[in-house]
């Protein structure tokens, strides 16, 4: 049916701002289910992976519901996944917090580490450096988004070549935190085929965040 809403599962693995994420994606035009059930998560048009807190704790919760398998299986079938905040960080190879090194999902190479800025955490509104060709940030190139984090990915290390399909060529959005001359650069968002992620919280980012979620939902 033409008026059918896309179905989205917000993955419930014990972490994240779950209710506000559900409400935000509903307002973006999706039919939303909050669950950790594998079959339901596999069948949805889109999967949103939230995350708040420590990398290690989030990975433990994710593994308890086999969430890393859900993500991998969806992506192997080209089915969309959106990670938010620590839900983005756990998509990378590993995280290092307080001397503890934890394996992530490994969907992207890279290390989540403490931001090297004079004041941490990075908390509040910030602009982002949007890449050419973005669909996620369509109409939002000059907007600000809400960040709350002390850790991030400071180097993008995925290597692609001319044989990589255009749809799978990653588009990386960057942001900086700290005063001029002392600012640290980190990955603010990634668009990579069916896998999309933001370090900031769209559900806390006002009208700009609402439009970004609509951009994602309408792509499902």
From TrEMBL:
Keywords for the protein's UniProt record, in alphabetical order: Amino-acid biosynthesis, Cytoplasm, Glutamine amidotransferase, Histidine biosynthesis, Hydrolase, Lyase
Annotated catalytic residues: 85 (nucleophile), 201, 203
E.C. no: 4.3.2.10, 3.5.1.2
Short name of one Pfam family: GATase
Glutamine amidotransferase domain boundaries: 9-217
Oligomeric and partner information: Heterodimer of HisH and HisF.
Function: IGPS catalyzes the conversion of PRFAR and glutamine to IGP, AICAR and glutamate. The HisH subunit catalyzes the hydrolysis of glutamine to glutamate and ammonia as part of the synthesis of IGP and AICAR. The resulting ammonia molecule is channeled to the active site of HisF.
Descriptive protein name: Imidazole glycerol phosphate synthase subunit HisH
Organism for this UniProt entry: Nocardioides faecalis
